[in-house]
Each structure stands twice: as structure tokens, then as C-alpha cells.
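User: I'm writing a short report section on ligand binding and want a predicted complex to refer to. Could you take this sequence and flavin-adenine dinucleotide and write out the structure as C-alpha cells? A short remark afterwards would be nice.
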Amino acid sequence: MNTIIFNKELSPGYFHMGISAPELAGKAKPGQFVMISVRDGRYDPILRRPMGIMFIEKWGIEILYQLVGRGTYIISRMGPGDPIDVIGPFGNGFQLRHDRDIWIIAGGCGLAPFFELVKQLSHKMEKGKKITMFLGARTYPDLPALGLLERFGIKPGIATEDGSAGFHGLVTELVENSLSESHGKDGPLLLASGPFGMLRALADLAVRRGLECFVSIDRRMACGFGVCLGCVVPVKQVSEDAQESGESGAGISYKCACTDGPVFNAREIVW
Amino acid sequence: MVDLSVEIAGLRFRNPVWTASGTFGYGLEFSPYLDLNQLGAIVVKGLSLKPSKGNPPPRTVETPAGMLNSIGLQNVGVDAFLKEKLPQLRKFDTHVIANFYGNSFEEYEETAGKLSQAEGISALEMNISCPNVKEGNLPFGRDPKVIEELVGRVRKAVKLPLIVKLSPNTSDIKSAARSAEQGGADALSAINTLIGMSVDVRTKKPRLAKITGGLSGPAIRPVAVRMVWEAASAVKIPVIGIGGIVSAEDALEFMIVGAKAVQIGTANFLDPAASVKIIEGLRDFCEKEQVERVRDLIGAVRV
Ligand SMILES: Cc1cc2nc3c(=O)[nH]c(=O)nc-3n(C[C@H](O)[C@H](O)[C@H](O)COP(=O)(O)OP(=O)(O)OC[C@H]3O[C@@H](n4cnc5c(N)ncnc54)[C@H](O)[C@@H]3O)c2cc1C
Ligand SMILES: Cc1cc2nc3c(=O)[nH]c(=O)nc-3n(C[C@H](O)[C@H](O)[C@H](O)COP(=O)(O)O)c2cc1C
Ligand code: FES
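Assistant: Sure. The C-alpha cells for the complex follow:
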């Protein structure tokens, strides 16, 4: 059992929680996630909820979450000192590259896993290489924790669908507009997390512009550690051996978002 | 010291708590959370002759006190299991039970034959809840006549103890149990998941890509207890109880209606250490209630 250190509502519906979990934190990497029990002593809701790791500290981890349903409601009501059952870290996480320009593209709470990434990378970037961030949301209040980014000296490009802040439109459009004509093979490495539609649009952009792109994929997860096989993502099939049975389309095979991911090369996924 | 051991099909188990197929991977995934050597047995994910890539996603959805799944029996295939997974599992001092299925009589026979030649497998558990592809995709486990023939054919192909895992999606579990016994099963396990469905009322779309899926978790426990009770009273061979067990008391409920052992499924997702906690809970219960041997509780139901 772990303990909640703080649980603050940053803006309506968005929470920032610190959880004491030194052992877990000692093993964690940027882009990994944890599975949080929301059972509250009962069995409805029953399954753990996956949450990205926002910050890794000596004493534990921090998460950034949006209130969307019953599970997140239950944890939003908890306070400092309350016990919370967290297991992990799970998943592959992001590769850290100091030798390239990195463009981070996040939608809503998809921003969470990038805090730790930026924390670990920002002071280590090779000369001339930098981290650029683009955040998208439906409307300005859906951009939580912007203030927390300032400490890394990053001013993200912002896109809102209703035009309430920054660029009026989709974040993927903002990214595309920001790419200069010359961005080709030596262009930035794209790292993204957010709604499926955003990731798909970005994957498409990456292919059109010849950019490398890695995305963190959200899937419903029953276990989080590779045993239920519920969280699969369709990927392009490389070998033929898994083709024999099963009712899925040809040329597709499945990988688990929890163990093979959540971070995938966008080109590998069958969108 | 409480004696938790049980004997089934000539095998001795240090306790009656096994892990259920499809919820425990190939075992090793759980070693960060518990000592595999403490388990009564590990039942591995359902194996088939050829690797199977399973159904399109979404494959799971949470439901009240349970979940639906339509994994589609994705697995590495029997050959890869024997070559890559089994050698690692063999290192543990725990019975390994290989769960398997087929899409035809021949596939069942061939898969069982391969498994029974391998070293380090204590018993086979045969999943008969899957569709018979040659016979209009009707599940094997629905028709008592088919069950008897299928079990009989597999029985001839293997020397290892054969456990037949019954499907609850039948109107008469007693007939299914008797047919499996007649076919030559050494033991029965029950239940597999109940077919269910869940729909998003806004999009009007089913929540699973395959529309329907198997329901598991505490929600199915009363149905499972009833079916285990019926099956146990219909046959002489041992019955292993499965369905929604999350605590030692739940496990005892099954044993009291006649189960000689139990399997823990969905609970492994909620708490990866659930199975050993249930073993500890059984020991505590027996100590408090002054039960010397847990097997004394088997079938102790007063009706
Ligand atoms: C690897 C990973 C990392 C994530 N990181 C974050 C994060 O940092 N911050 C954050 O706010 N959210 C994150 N999510 C999404 C988060 O898990 C869901 O918002 C949460 O499970 C919703 O639970 P609920 O009970 O409030 O909602 P409900 O809608 O009531 O949940 C019902 C069921 O659907 C599942 N579910 C619902 N929405 C999602 C979703 N988007 N992705 C996966 N499963 C879902 C739930 O887990 C639950 O089983 C992440 C998801 C994944 C897979
Ligand atoms: C995700 C998942 C996968 C499963 N896969 C298999 C399988 O491969 N073979 C099998 O015989 N049963 C399978 N089952 C059924 C379980 O072994 C068990 O019979 C059922 O879930 C009821 O027990 P529970 O309520 O404790 O989970 C699966 C169940 C779940 C939830
Ligand atoms: S969530 Fe269970 S295998 Fe990925």
C-alpha cells in the first residue's frame, strides 16, 4: 500500500497527485505508467486504472489526471495521508535522445508523461538541439499544469479548437504549419501522446514529411502487465507465423500496449 | 499446523489454490509479486496447435463487479510454449497444468498429444467452450454427446491426467459433467466465462469489437457456485471450482459445495498477489475454526 502526499485540483476537473512509492519510483522511466486501484474496498468499479507517470522523485511519483468517470472520481476525493494501492512501473517508456531536435505534441492529459522526460532531457541536450512543445485542447481550461512547464524554460505552442488560446484549430495543424519546407530526414523527432485521432493525424503527417514519430497509445487495460492480452494494438505483421488462426485481417498482428508499448513507432501501427 | 493439501487425479497439491487459465499468463509475469512455489498449481493460458493472434480490439470492458473479455484465445501456440515458456516454468516447484483447445476434434487430439509428451506438465485442462469450426461454429461444450466423443478421443491420445473445463453456457451442466466423466475425464473444472454483452448507449455500439464476450469476476460467483454444486453432485470424479473468487471465504464456498480445489482468475488483475493471500486466508480460517485438514470441508454443505 502507498500513501497520498498531495492531491490538488489544478483547474476544474484536472488533478495533480503525489504518491509515496520510493521503490516503484526507483525503477521508473519517463513514459512508463502505473496501475492504480480505485476499488475503495468494493468490487464496482473493479479494475485498476492506468495512469502515466508525470514526475519521478526519490520519495515517489506524481500523476496528472482528468476526472472522466467513476474511477478517477474516487481518487479525486482522496487526500493527503490516505492509502492508495499502486503497482508498476509498467511499459517501455520513451527513448531519451539528446542528439536530436525533439518536438513533443500532447493533447489534454497526454501531457503527463512528458514532464519527467523534459526534466531529464532539458539540461542534457547537445549543443544546437532543443525541445519544442505543442499542446492541444478543445478549450483553454483543458490545458492544465501549464505553469509547471515554466520551470523548464519551455514555452509551448498552444492550439485550441475553440480559439480560446493560441492557434485556433487542431494541434496537428499547428505542428504542420511550424515545420519548415526544409525539414526532411534531419527534421525533428516527434513524440506524442493524446487522443487517438490526434495521434493518427500526426502519424500521417510524419509519413508525409519523412519524420520519425513515436506515440504513446491509450488502451483499456485489465491487468497492465501482459497477462490478460486485452490491451492490444494492431501492428503491421512482420512474420507469417502468427497468421494461422484468429479472425483478424491479413497483414495485421497484435502487440500489447502495456508491455510492448505504450510507446510505439507510429509507422508500426495499423491506424 | 493446518493441512491444506488435496489430492486430485493421483496428484498431490500442497494447497487447493490454483491460478486460472488466461489470467496468469505463463506464470513468470507474477514472480515480482508472489512466490510461485507457494501455489497449488499454475494453469497456463489456453494453447492451440498453431499460434493464434486473437480478436480485434477492444477486447475488454469493465462491468459491475466483473469484466467482459473477447481475447479470442490469443496464444503463442503449443510448440513455442514447449520450447520457450515451459523450461522456465519447470524451475518452480509447482504443478504446471496446460490448458488447451482446438477448433476441430483432430486439433484437440494433436495438441493434447504434443503436450502430453513434454516433461514438466502435471496435467492437462481441456477448454471445451470454443467453437467447432467444422460444425457450424457451435461450441463443443454445449452438446453432451459431442462432449463425450471429444473427451473420449483426447483421452486416448494422452497419458496425463485430463481435466475437462466445462462451459456454463449450457442449459444442463449435470449432463455436460456426466458426459465428460463418461468420456474418461479424470477431473472437471467449472466454470468458464458466461457469455455477455455491453453497449454504449450514446454511440449505440457494442463495447467489444466482437460484440459479445465472456463475463468473469465476482458478478458470476453465485452462478458458478450453483453449477459447481450441481456438477459435483452429478459425478464421482473431482470438480475444481472457478468463478469470481477474490477471497478465502469465496474459495471455501466452492469447496463446501463440493469442489476439491479452486482456481483464481480475474482477481489476479485486481491484486497480482491475490492467490497467495487466499492461501493465507484459508490457513487462517482453518486455524480459527479448528479445521485440521481443509479437505474435511469439501462437500460439507448442509442442504
Ligand atoms: C498507458 C496509459 C496512460 C494513461 N495516462 C493517463 C494520465 O496520465 N492522465 C489521465 O488523466 N489519464 C490517463 N490515461 C487514461 C485513464 O486511464 C482513464 O482516463 C481512466 O482509466 C478513466 O477511468 P474512470 O473510471 O474515471 O473512467 P470510466 O470511463 O468510468 O472507466 C471505465 C473503464 O474504461 C477504462 N478507460 C476509460 N477511459 C480510458 C482511456 N482513455 N484509456 C484507457 N482506459 C480507459 C477505465 O480504465 C475503466 O476500465 C492513461 C491510459 C493509459 C492506457
Ligand atoms: C482475460 C481472460 C482470459 C481467459 N482466457 C482463458 C483461456 O485461455 N482458457 C480458458 O480455459 N479460460 C480462460 N478464461 C476463463 C478463466 O480461466 C475463468 O474460467 C473465468 O474467468 C472465471 O473465473 P474468474 O471469475 O475468477 O475470472 C479467461 C478469462 C479471462 C478474464
Ligand atoms: S492490460 Fe493486460 S495484457 Fe495489457
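A remark for your report: The first strand of chain A starts at residue 2 and ends at 11. Residues 196-209 of chain A form the longest helix (14 residues).
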